Task: structure prediction
Amino acid sequence: MPERLGPALPEPLFDRLTLVGIGLIGSSIARAARQLKLARTLVAVDRDDAVVARVRELDFADEVTTELAAGVSGADLVVLCVPVGACGAVAEAMRPALKPGAIVSDVGSVKGSVVAQVEPHLPDGVHLVPAHPVAGTEQSGPDAGFATLFLNRWCILTPPEGTDSAAVERVRALWEALGSDVEVMSAQHHDLVLAITSHVPHLIAYNIVGTAADMEEVTQSEVIKFSAGGFRDFTRIAASDPTMWRDVFLHNKEAVLEMLGRFNEDLAALQRAIRWSDGEALYSLFARTRAIRRSIISMGQETPEPDFGRRHEPQ
Amino acid sequence: MPERLGPALPEPLFDRLTLVGIGLIGSSIARAARQLKLARTLVAVDRDDAVVARVRELDFADEVTTELAAGVSGADLVVLCVPVGACGAVAEAMRPALKPGAIVSDVGSVKGSVVAQVEPHLPDGVHLVPAHPVAGTEQSGPDAGFATLFLNRWCILTPPEGTDSAAVERVRALWEALGSDVEVMSAQHHDLVLAITSHVPHLIAYNIVGTAADMEEVTQSEVIKFSAGGFRDFTRIAASDPTMWRDVFLHNKEAVLEMLGRFNEDLAALQRAIRWSDGEALYSLFARTRAIRRSIISMGQETPEPDFGRRHEPQ
Result:
């Protein structure tokens, strides 16, 4: 499995690649694209003046602007790196500036809603190839990104039926250059899979952190001091970007509620096993969940080091 | 904050220190005690022949035996490092061999039950000072331990009312030597605090991993591949020792069910917010949970590195 980005490409994949929204994901794509020379001209668009100023300082794009139309004009590929709930408005606003034959993609954690929001605004001859790189950290903003974020991670493409296959292949080539494995599936299936592997886990992490914060019998200081017993792990996910995650839940409502229903059913059974001291039921679950982690590690999706490789030794 | 164990003590704290049960915690105490010269004679007891053989190879104890009575005989301090459910039987079995004035301690994640199980078996003049080092990894067994496991972590002592204060101070001295901060509280309060900071987090991690394993519409391969979206974090905790955790839930039933009830109430409110598209309620929770992680980091209980310091760069 590769452990570093490849060498720069002999020929750029795109003449003009425009990233809209320069947070963790946008800035990570930009850094890698710059390093790998994926585009002759790399354009960074953000509506926030402070972000644009910071991106100029960090110097990982050829053009940096708050002007959406100017940024996307002439682009072969435009990648929306904004919260899922903003995709429709951005697509509408950039429509007049898109060049014929351009490809529009995104990085949103929900795909059905992105297709529904963006597709109606695209002119004929502009191709929509939605993408979701399953990668990230709990940090946000242009300083948080890094070029190897997508290395050995999966990127899911969900082109609507009938999408131009050459356009799909160009987006695949982008993600493969960034070091990802690419899988293609329907937006509907994506939203179901991610509900259980990402959205419900985030929801219950936010929830337990909220529950702990509202305790009366246990002080905040105690919650913090004794968090190494397990709670602190959940606070990482619960420190993720609030706007991004609000939008995920609002835009993948059906699948999240379905998966949450199953989680709740299973939790009720565990609760009952505890109440009735059914040690066998508890042991049986706790023993079989170990195997899944071993698979995740052997598939290269997790570090084999104990405790995520958190440093215990002198730093 | 110290980043390494201190130098060896000028005088050992104990003439004879016996550890019963040489898993992750027992072997970590042994390694640190050996390095710091905390005892003139360090004794390791385990009922499992294979563990005893391995501990001899690893060579971190002066005496290694499967014989409980021989191991605890003459000890100033005996620390039970066995699953919570085994403490009563071990206490009963070792009773005749305990020397007058000995201190008995443990490392269990539940304290009320340990007191209830162990206290009736101790002869007069033997002191019970229960302890819970809030530290660990998802790994188990004598190979998994390391000397710095307790460094900068908290250790909670829950001596029953009227416990000899000199005995409490000797156990405090042990944990401070191991690099921990020590706090004293009632067993009842301990069990409530740990229910929310450790036991319920483990329960919901085991539960989500079980739910994901039972999916029909989503394949196991998909769960594994796309686990970097959040799910993989939960698999670490859900890979913890099944026997230890079965016992925790069976022996802290009341507090776990109470805290789980609150978790469920809060989750029902979140579920309703999603169903009714209440973006403000979602955003408001997601924004305030960030602050707790910042506090945990600034209190030295978590790494400030993104993604727990998981390696993204070339290894």
